[in-house]
TrEMBL record, chain A:
Protein name: ABC transporter permease
Keywords assigned by UniProt, alphabetized: Cell inner membrane, Cell membrane, Membrane, Transmembrane, Transmembrane helix, Transport
Keyword Cell membrane appears in the UniProt entry: yes
Membrane topology of the entry: Multi-pass membrane protein
Record CDD domains: TM_PBP1_transp_AraH_like
Organism in which the protein naturally occurs: Jiella sonneratiae
Predominant location category: membrane
Keyword Transmembrane attached: yes
UniProtKB/TrEMBL annotation, chain C:
Keyword presence, Secreted: no
Keywords from the named record: Cell inner membrane, Cell membrane, Membrane, Transmembrane, Transmembrane helix, Transport
Record's protein name: ABC transporter permease
PANTHER family: ABC TRANSPORTER PERMEASE PROTEIN YPHD-RELATED (PTHR32196:SF21), ABC TRANSPORTER PERMEASE PROTEIN YPHD-RELATED-RELATED (PTHR32196)
Segments crossing the lipid bilayer: 22-41, 61-80, 87-104, 110-135, 178-199, 227-251, 257-275, 282-302, 308-328
Organism field: Jiella sonneratiae
Keyword Transport among UniProt keywords: yes
Subcellular location: Cell membrane
Membrane topology (UniProt): Multi-pass membrane protein
Source organism superkingdom: Bacteria
Pfam families in the cross-refs: BPD_transp_2 (PF02653)
Length: 328, 509, 330
């Protein structure tokens, strides 16, 4: 057929565009809804608290997940990275090594998780879902063995005084340090994924791994970097988590897994090219955080919040995939 | 004459503004083998998909054994005895032969499957029609391509097919297998079945078909007796042009050898392959399915580890352990499976074209977007890629334009050697000519090309020299003008005595 | 003399693959047997009839849920990332348990509570079906969202507390015995037989596997793929509902945290593939895998090894199995 085939996709394009707007419109409607019905939703204190308590840690984890999903994989072991990093961090501080050594130790633990994932995926050719699932199981055992069955470790005032507060509870030029760290991560991942040669290769890898291979992209190397980066970001999130609550609670990181995946795919649904993107993921994180906070303010308890968020994610995915599926 | 088994009249199909089938008739009588030919995009697959109930016709009437069918669905059509043997071997890889033959038509024993009956009948049918002793418990994934094709046909026969529609049934078969398939088809025809036979191979059409419907641009331009009118006339009807216009001419003086291969061996695929490839040369490479020709390309691109032998690139010994190494030495490959290996369909033209040469448009690891757009736009104009702009997604382009995107990618990184694996598969005639022109241009610019194709005419017309691989051995090395398609075919089938026997070279599904 | 029969290009590799597949299967059986023998030799009381039935009993709940997962895999393929999966299965069982327990607590009889629990499970399964078939959401994501919904509803119903219940039926399920075997054991045996019959000896099963094995081939054969995918999810949900009653019976309560079973359930369904000739999930294979996991947990217990190790061993098993099968398939 000599007719340029892009004309055939014209109606499809409209439907796709519609689905983009539908998700964005839903987001704005939700914010408007809470602004009207939830007292204090728009107050500065509440907004800062949304970001500090709900956004920072999830955003950092979700950034890592975005990299992994952009490369065509998935990482179910972010919880392990969070937990092991947090565990080593807290243990080192409890042993008197101070915050800096603790943080380095925590990140090193997360690095191990990332390297293990990379080795399983690249060397043993196990698909990312199953590889990271295996690591998830093993991580659970590691934590239980290390904590005598899953006992939390709480830091006493004497232990965390001085060094510990530096990370989570300080400000820099009036901005809380966690927010600065998050901003740095956002900029770094944005540049890496959307502006660099590395990110371009990762994107091609996600769309068509064989094309990348036949075009001279070092597939194994890039996959490894992506999984290690995801683990390190999750490790950072783990450190921020324990330095906020001054403790380590075993197996608490898994709570972020579903939200991180959800946020990334909400972001993919919003993105005009249907790709995982940093901006999209951040909107996804915000959407989840706003929902949690708003539902809390209008008096829903934690349990109903979960139902609400499940339904929301379901609808967002339904709109985005449903309209796209129809258009093809 | 008897009542037609299939009678499709004035069938029309449009996709939005695109007319896939303008107004076509297809009438097939019982007891005949009816050929359906046409260039890619002529509407062959569209009319078949309408008959199969996969597409819904925009207009026209469809009668099966005299009965007008308004709502054509796969189930409705199958119930009337019309069965389709699809080109891709549509079988469940994890099912057994018996299960595949009886899928959706399973004999029962009470509420349960009658496994014994399934096994026995399968054995019987395979033996009766194909003289084939195959355990009904064999898994589909363990069968050869030809055996899978046979299971597909047996499935139709098990359901008492009255009409068989075979879409490129010989595509993945070797000479002998084609012969025995034709024997079966003739027997079925003599039993009174109506058979629709779709093939790219004109020699097969003339050998087996009693009548042929020729499609061009969505219109049936004629129904002829192939033995009467002959191949050249049918091709003329298909393309509406003289065959000689298909292949643009070129005169290039060969330069120095670029790629020298000596005694390259990679068991069990091929042995002792040696040749020199010169700058400005188009070297043909062909062979039957499984002959090892594809593996030669793979070895040259670092996808296969060789056992022994040497590859020299510009006089220097090289050893490619991965495609990464091959690409960085200036070897480019245009893979056969475009969707899986050639283009990232979900990404833009820009991202695809610049993929292999990102370092040229980036600094310190970051992509310079405006440089990139500039370079890519230049190539889009240069290669005449039909796209609204560099940011159009590749999946929205036509097959020929996608192929040009792949070429543009390699052009952009100054590759010296181009390994082209079936570059003209599934592109329409117009795009084919453009790809040939592009190949000539590359040669004129001093690049060296290896052109692997199972379309022997293409090889004969386009190549300066042609290597033929037969069972892993390089058995012939012809210069241009020394060969015709028949000689090539005889060599590829490894049987010079059978010279001139019509048989296809492989085209994988 | 048949030309076609002798033709074929994939021959040499085919033999090799046959042997490697066989090796995987034999290896799997040998591994299971070796571990059982090891426990028999070192763990006192392992081979006592009481302990053996105990293993089966311990494996029942895991096994039934894994059967649900197996049906979903059968109908949607085992590529867990792009194919199908039901992440909501365990959470669904938790929700059904909550429905059952709360209804009993509020004075409704089993005649209402049991159908309500099973229907709840099927409804959640249908929701997965809608998401996957109608909305065409990737199953991984769709069932993830449904997992959140199911878990949230469970928490809402029980307010994250233990809901203790008792009824004659529950006593019978928990303590009843018939021919020397407990009720749970009988249920496991009957469920296995029924599901083997449906999945491997009926038209429905054959077609379900065809849909999961090759979508286009199934469609070309005239099978309504969507209906089978719906069916698989709904059946899995129904099994979750059924299992929830056993969960409540075993614990005499609905307890938060049933969702934690997801990973062992996945492990059992995936491990089961190595016991099948075709290296696909089968009811029989899943049954063996569930017993295998139950044996491990039981043996560890008897040997005094901390239960912390169980999940780690499961994880390592998954990795070994997947790595070995992917090499065998090559």
């Amino acid at each position: 057929m000599s007719v340029p085939s892009h004309t055939t996709s014209r109606p499809a394009f409209n439907l796709e565009a519609l689905s983009n707007y539908a998700v964005l419109a839903a987001f704005l409607a939700i914010i408007a809804f809470f602004a009207i019905f939830a007292d204090g939703f728009l107050s500065l204190d509440n907004l800062v608290s949304i970001i500090l308590n709900k956004v920072v840690i999830l955003a950092i984890v979700a950034l890592g997940m975005t990299l992994v999903i952009a490369s065509g994989g998935i990482d179910l072991s972010v919880g392990v990275s969070i937990d092991l990093s947090s565990m080593v961090f807290v243990m080192l501080i409890a042993a008197g090594y101070g915050g800096f050594v603790g943080a380095v130790g925590g990140l090193a633990a997360a690095l191990c998780v990332g390297l293990a994932n990379a080795a399983l995926i690249n060397k043993l050719k196990i698909n990312p879902f199953l590889a990271t699932l295996g690591i998830l199981f093993i991580g659970e055992t590691v934590q239980r063995v290390a904590t005598g069955g899953g006992n939390p470790i709480y830091l006493t005032r004497g232990q965390y005084a001085g060094t510990f507060d530096v990370i989570a509870r300080t400000e820099f030029l009036g901005v809380p340090t966690p927010i600065i760290l998050m901003a740095l991560c956002i900029v770094a991942v944005y540049l890496a994924l959307h502006r660099s040669v590395f990110g371009r290769f990762v994107t091609v890898l996600g769309d068509a791994p064989d094309v990348a291979r036949y075009s001279g992209v070092r597939v194994g190397f890039h996959t490894s970097i992506v999984f290690v980066a995801c683990a390190l970001l999750s490790g950072l999130a783990g450190i921020l988590l324990s330095s906020t609550v001054r403790s380590y609670v075993p197996l608490s990181g898994d709570a972020f897994l579903l939200d991180a995946i959800g946020a990334t795919f909400i972001g993919t649904a919003i993105n005009s090219e249907r790709r995982p993107s940093v901006v999209g993921t951040l909107l996804g994180v915000l959407l989840l955080a706003v929902m949690r906070n708003g539902l809390l303010l209008i008096g829903w308890n934690f349990f109903w919040q979960q139902v609400g968020i499940g339904v929301l994610v379901f609808l967002v995915l339904g709109i985005s995939f449903g309209l796209r599926g129809r258009s093809e | 004459m008897s009542e037609p088994a299939i009678e499709m009249r004035n069938v029309r199909k449009t996709f939005g503004p695109v007319i896939a089938l303008e107004k076509a008739d297809l009438v097939v009588h019982p007891g005949t083998i009816h050929g359906l030919v046409g260039a890619n995009g002529a509407g062959k697959s569209t009319i078949i998909k309408i008959l199969a109930g996969i597409y819904r016709k925009t207009a026209g009437t469809i009668r099966i054994f005299g009965e007008t069918i308004e709502d054509v669905t796969p189930v409705a059509i199958e119930r009337r005895g019309v069965h389709f043997i699809h080109q891709d071997r549509l079988l469940v890889p994890t099912a057994t032969v018996a299960e595949s033959i009886f899928l959706r038509n399973e004999p029962r024993f009470g509420p349960f499957l009658n496994h014994r009956h399934m096994r026995r009948r399968s054995k019987e049918l395979l033996h009766r029609y194909f003289d084939l002793e195959l355990s009904p418990d064999t898994l589909i994934s363990e069968l050869s391509t030809a055996q899978q094709k046979i299971v597909q046909i047996t499935r139709a026969l098990a359901q008492d097919a009255r009409v068989l529609v075979l879409d490129e049934p010989t595509a993945a078969l070797i000479d002998k297998e084609v012969k025995s398939l034709f024997k079966v088809l003739r027997r079925l025809r003599d039993d009174g079945l109506a058979i629709v036979f779709i093939s790219h191979y004109m020699s097969e059409i003339t050998e087996i078909c009693d009548t042929v419907t020729v499609l061009r641009n969505g219109v049936d331009v004629g129904v002829v007796d192939p033995r009467e009118v002959g191949i050249p006339r049918i091709v003329e009807m298909m393309t509406a042009r003289n065959t000689s216009e298909m292949y643009p001419r070129r005169a290039v003086a060969l330069g120095a050898p670029v790629l020298s291969v000596r005694d390259l061996t990679c068991e069990p695929y091929f042995r002792n392959v040696s040749f020199d490839l010169h700058a400005g040369e188009i070297l043909g490479l062909t062979g039957l399915l499984g002959s090892g020709d594809k593996e030669v390309l793979k070895a040259l691109f670092g996808q296969l580890r060789t056992d022994s032998g040497e590859i020299h690139l510009n006089g220097e010994r090289v050893e490619f352990r991965s495609p990464v190494a091959a690409v960085s030495s200036g070897v480019a490959k245009i893979p056969e499976d475009r969707r899986a290996h050639g283009v990232a369909a979900g990404l833009s033209v820009r991202e695809n074209v610049s993929l292999a040469s990102l370092s040229d448009v980036s600094s310190r690891g970051f992509v310079n977007r405006s440089r990139e757009v500039e370079v890519v736009s230049g190539l889009i104009d240069d290669l005449n890629i039909k796209t609204p702009g560099p940011d159009q997604l590749v999946k929205n382009l036509s097959g020929g334009n996608q192929q040009k995107v792949v070429v543009a990618k390699w052009l952009n990184c100054n590759s010296q050697v181009y390994l082209m694996d079936e570059p003209t598969v599934a592109v329409d005639v117009g795009a084919k000519i453009e790809i040939f022109e592009l190949m000539n241009r590359l040669a004129e610019e001093g690049k060296a090309l290896i052109f692997l194709s199972s379309d022997l005419e293409e090889i004969v017309e386009m190549c300066d020299r042609t290597l033929v691989i037969y069972r892993g051995e390089m058995i012939a090395d012809y210069a241009r003008g020394d060969i015709d398609a028949d000689r090539l075919l005889a060599a590829a089938s490894g049987a010079p005595a059978e010279r001139g026997t019509p048989a296809p070279v492989r085209r994988s599904a | 003399m048949s030309a076609v029969a002798t033709a074929g290009t994939a021959r040499p590799t085919r033999r090799k693959r046959d042997y490697s597949k066989l090796a995987v299967r034999l290896g799997a059986f040998a591994g299971f047997a070796a571990i059982a023998l090891y426990f028999a030799a070192t763990a006192r009381g392992f081979v006592s009839p009481y302990n053996l039935t105990n293993i089966v009993e311990q494996s029942t709940i895991l096994g039934l849920l894994a059967f649900g997962m197996t049906l979903v895999f059968a109908g949607t393929g085992t590529d867990v990332q792009k194919g199908g999966i039901d992440l909501s299965l365990a959470a669904n069982a938790g929700l059904c348990a909550a429905v059952y327990a709360v209804l009993l607590r509020n004075g409704y009889g089993s005649a209402i509570a049991i159908p309500a629990a099973i229907l709840t499970g099927m409804a959640i399964g249908a929701l997965n079906g809608v998401a996957v078939v109608l909305f065409k959401i990737m199953p991984l994501l769709a069932t993830l969202a449904v997992l959140n919904i199911a878990e949230g509803l469970e928490l809402t119903l029980t307010e994250n507390t233990v809901v203790p219940v008792s009824s004659p039926l529950i006593d019978m399920l928990a303590f009843g015995r018939f021919l020397g075997l407990s009720s749970l054991t009988w249920i496991f045996v009957v469920a296995t037989i029924v599901l083997v019959a449906i999945a491997h000896y009926s038209r429905i099963g054959l077609r379900l596997y065809a849909v999961g094995g090759h979508k286009e081939a199934a469609r070309a054969a005239g099978i309504n793929n969507g209906a089978y995918v719906y069916g698989a999810y709904i059946a899995a949900g129904g099994l979750a509902g059924l299992t929830s009653i056993l969960i409540v019976a075993r614990l005499s309560s609905s307890t938060p945290g049933t969702g934690q079973m997801l990973l062992p359930v996945l492990a059992a369904a995936l491990l089961g593939t190595v016991f099948s000739r075709r290296l696909i999930p089968t009811i029989g294979g899943t049954c063996l895998a569930a017993l295998f996991i139950g044996t491990l947990a039981n043996g560890f217990q008897l040997l005094g090894i901390s239960s912390y190790w169980v999940s780690g061993v499961q994880g390592a098993l998954i990795l070994v199995v997947v790595a070995v099968t992917s090499f065998a398939k090559k």
